[in-house]
Design goal:
With 94 residues, the protein is mainly alpha-helical. The chain is 98% helix and 0% strand. It contains 1 helix and no strands. The radius of gyration is 40 Å and the shape is rod-shaped.
Length: 94
């Protein structure tokens, strides 16, 4: 009978310890789930930021390319004007 009482007391202690451990692990799991959700939100925000920055970068590159093309066209026109002026001057000298 004494052994049975000791075994029941030991079993009761182990069950209480197991319940406490379960509660601790349950709280830890809830905290981890909350952290995961927060991190997922952060990831989604960063993805949106990256997409916006990539769009902005493409727009800047397009504007820069367009500006460079305009400069090239303007420079060619100016060169052509100068060549025509030189031709006119040479014609006047003859």
């Amino acid at each position: 009978m004494n052994d049975l009482t000791l075994n029941i007391g030991d079993l009761k202690g182990k069950i209480e310890k197991l319940v406490k451990l379960h509660q601790v692990l349950k709280k830890e799991n809830e905290q981890l789930a909350s952290d995961k959700e927060n991190l997922q939100k952060t990831i989604n925000e960063q993805k949106a930021t990256i997409e916006a920055l990539e769009k902005n970068n493409k727009a800047i590159e397009a504007a820069k390319s367009e500006e460079q093309s305009k400069i090239v066209v303007d420079t060619k026109e100016k060169i052509n004007e100068l060549v025509q002026e030189i031709d006119n001057c040479i014609a006047l000298l003859k």
